[in-house]
Amino acid sequence: MTSFVVYIDGAGEFRWYLLAENGRKIADSGEGYRVRQDCEDAIRLVKRLVPKAKIDSQPRVETLLVS
Length: 67
Known about the structure:
- The protein has one helix and three strands; from the N terminus they run E-E-E-H.
- The chain is an alpha+beta fold and 67 residues long.
- It has one domain: Double Stranded RNA Binding Domain.
- The radius of gyration is 15 Å and the shape is extended.
C-alpha cells in the first residue's frame, strides 16, 4: 500500500516521504518542519495537488558541477 511516512531528521525537524507499493521512496518533503502539524499540512497539500499535476515534457539539460 502506498503511504506517507513522517519522521524526525537529525536536526530534530519533521519530514515526510512517500513509499510506493513496492516499498521504494518516490517523493519526499525536501525540507524540515519544526511542528508536526505543518508537516502533515504539507502532506495534505501534496495529496490535493497531485491529481491536478501535469507532466512537463519540455526537454531539460541539467549540469552537474563538480569542484
